[in-house]
Amino acid sequence: MARRLLEAAEWVDGKVTAGHQSARAKSNEQLPEDSAAARELGKLVLVALERSSLFISAALPLKIFPPLFNRYVSGQSFGMHVDNAVRQVRATGQLVRTDLSATLFLAEPQEYDGGELVVEDTYGAHTIKLPAGHMVLYPASSLHRVQPITRGARLASFFWVQSMVRDDVERSLLFDLDSAIRRLNADTPQSPAAVQLTGVYHNLLRRWAQM
């Protein structure tokens, strides 16, 4: 269904959502955020996110900027940039602090050449090209780019998350702790250690959460 909507949609210049600096590096196409196709597809993405315990654990979302959709075809790319710190939802005027950036891949890797998402952090550059339906979540403060397309078309949804836990390190620690608790519960059901660690998790979340 999503692919049918994307293939039938009318695309516009992707610079419509770019900041001043990003606009100079950006060459792609985008669905208008107020279009019927973008709204319908965005609802599908949000419903899927609500059902994903992995996303909830990793992002601890407080607000989610409505998903947007882009397309890169041959010759198009997005040079190195950093996302705006705050985005405003056009329909409501709500402000969303962009703690996390998300890219949901909607085309299979074999459908296009190039188009890798490259994210830079203190450990170097990470190249990401995932199967359709898979998503990468990374700190919005990261420098990142999309490699030029040389064949086919790259389709994706992208959006931002304001997390209950603003600090990347604190949020990462909570994710690791939650993952360990889940594994412990699976391996040793009703473990007293799991109960104790769950208490530690929630006390840390209580200390670090910003509502």
Protein architecture, described:
The structure is a single chain. This protein has helices spanning 2-8, 20-25, 36-51, 53-59, 168-187, 192-208; strands at residues 12-13, 26-27, 29-30, 61-64, 68-73, 77-81, 86-88, 95-97, 100-105, 112-114, 117-121, 124-128, 135-139, 143-146, 149-163. The chain contains six helices and 15 strands. The strands form three sheets. Strands 1, 3, 4, 5, 9, 10, 13 and 15 form an eight-stranded antiparallel β-sheet that branches. A five-stranded antiparallel β-sheet has the order 2-6-14-11-12. A two-stranded antiparallel ribbon has the order 7-8. 26% of the residues are buried. Strand 11 and strand 12 form a beta hairpin. With 211 residues, the chain is α+β, with helices and mostly antiparallel strands.
Unreliable spans: none
- Rounded radius of gyration (Å): 18 Å
Provide the residue-averaged pLDDT: 93
Q: What are the secondary-structure elements, in order, as H or E?
A: HEHEEHHEEEEEEEEEEEEHH
Number of helices: 6
Structural class, by secondary structure, is: alpha+beta
Give the DSSP E fraction (strand runs of 2 or more residues). Answer: 25-35%
